[in-house]
Amino acid sequence: MYQALYRKWRPETFDDVYGQDHITSVLKYEAINGTFSHAYLFCGSRGTGKTTCAKILSRVINCLDPKDGNPCGKCAACRAIESGTTTDVLEMDAASNNGVEDIRDIRDEVVYAPSDLKYRVYIIDEVHMLSVSAFNALLKTLEEPPAHVVFILATTELHKLPATIISRCQRFDFRRISTEVLASRLSYIAEQEGLVLDADAARLISRQAQGGMRDAISLLELCAGSRMPITPQFVDDTIGSMGRESMIKVAGAVAERDFDALFDVIDKTVRSSKDIAIFWQELISLYRDMLVVKTTKNAASYLDLTDSETQMLEACAANFTRETLVYHCKLLDEALITMQKANAVKRIVAEMTLVRMCDPVLDTSTQALLSRIARLEEAIASGAVAPPTPKPNKEAKAVNIEKTSEPAVTSKSKQTAATDDKSKADVEPASDKTRTLRPIRAWNEVVSRIAEGHPVPASFFKTAKAFTADDGKIVIKFDGDFQRMMAERDGGLDAIRGALSYCLQKQITQADIVIETQSVTQAEDTLLDLILDAADEA
């Protein structure tokens, strides 16, 4: 009779368990020294080896001739447990036997000595499914069972277990198995089964398994059904995945606002009978990876990708700002929830969401506005778009007209005026008309940090405005000379330099800081104000 691959290749010893060395090493040590606990709790996601380790532990506890902490598999006890002929090892599924009566039966049985083996072992799978009454009935027996009884509890949802149960067990947390370990195991199984498995295909299957060995082997068995060479394209076609390259093309179409390409990919997905929800989850995964690239310095350590895939991802992420990626992730998440509620309109939801992602003008939410502003600021900073010029001041024009109507001055007066203008130019800052100033968004955080050690200067820095100039300088503008003088006292300059270095995450020197004074009535508009004025005029 045919046996599924995940059952055929289930480990028989702790040495055969992949990716859980932090657990198997402890269990082997206990087996070698005979220091078994009375109760074990195995918790972790599905397919990571909880039930497998429970079965191996039940054999090594009763093995007559253990080898280096592993069951020998040859003695009468190991053969009886493996064949299921002994009544001293009981496996119970708490999902279907979760009543208090089932636990009471166990409580009544534990008082009897084992009939064939050294220990009576109870393996309770999905223990979180037990009722409250069943947990209460298990408590006392679990805390002080007879010397010949060992409990092994397994669960995928640890948070549903009462603390009183957890505290009575030796707990082991099973981790998700890494992609490299899964791919290595799949390659070995494929070789033993006579399958042709491409290395990239093994890695793709491992990523789809999301850390579960059982899922990975099941996907391998699915792809091996036709006994054809297993390639990445064959894996995508078999499991209904679009592939990372296809997802990057979709993201590129969003960046370029290529509506034809987006509607075409949805149409092909529907016509090929692939589930749009799977396509959508892969797109969310891609956006998550792009967000990691945009927000971290060492993105490769958080991404499970090859070098070529990482380069493609970085090139794709360069088309978006962080604000845009966050906005798109919000739209994708909301669309997935809608798809799960209404299967019939998945295509419509997908198409409408992609259109909204292409054109933020169609959305008036805060995230959409932040995305638009971030893109505009980035364009202005790179020089792709020139900032709008400020509106001319009518009062200033009147003054200029009056000056032209003044009588001619003597040469001596001209010389004096020229000298005054020269000295005035030495002390006055450069006009904002000749430079681009971008407001520092973290200014409130900077002021708060100054206030921790220098509250007096901080109160005056709070009323100032801070900008980043196009030459990299930090420009701080005060409303008057008094405010500037008070802010610079009591170590205010050193405090502002340190706070700026901390909040902007780069070294700021005193030479990088330019402090200016302006009157409130003559304060010029910030870059954002000019943008908004230009938008109003349009």
CATH hierarchy class name of the largest domain: Alpha Beta
Number of helices: 25
CATH fold name of the largest domain: Rossmann fold
User: Which band does the percent of strand residues land in?
Assistant: 5-15%
CATH architecture tag of the largest domain: 3-Layer(aba) Sandwich
Regions with pLDDT < 50 over 5+ consecutive residues?
393-428, 520-525, 532-538
Number of strands: 9
Assign the CATH superfamily of the largest domain. Answer: P-loop containing nucleotide triphosphate hydrolases
> Major sheet: size, sense and barrel closure?
5 strands, parallel
Shape: globular
Structural class: alpha/beta
Radius of gyration: 35 Å
On the 0 to 100 scale, the average pLDDT is 81
Q: Helical proportion?
A: 40-55%
Give the N-to-C terminal Cα separation: 76 Å
Number of domains: 4
Cross-sheet strand order for the largest sheet: 2-3-4-1-5
